Amino acid sequence: MDSIVKKEFSNRFKTLLDEKNETIYNLSELLHLNPSTISRYKNGLMSPKLIIIEKIAEYFNVNPVWLMGYDVERDANIKNKKENSSAKTSKRCKNKNVFEKDISKIIELYSKLPKDMQEKALKNVSSISKK
What we know:
This protein has eight helices and no strands. The relative contact order is 0.10.
């Protein structure tokens, strides 16, 4: 994650923790991570892996792309989308590392686009995913 997005992730993560009155310790147990790791995410000292971002987003019922700092809708009905997405992803991609590399590349390319092109890209992807 670039520094701007990492800072925005940190801010959004803090907001979610505060809104849900969630502790670092409880979240660390839920995610099976060390509390110091969660603290580093919260303070913007460390970027979580994509799989952790997805788990955090699912727990707080927010869009993982929003959590990563991008200007998209915050709330998401992740449970239904996650179930459908997970089944499709498992069939299409047996190797999780390949999937994570693809997602990382998409995020990298997306972050390099000008703001107006980011919006167009999101609309195109949204349109394709509804088919």
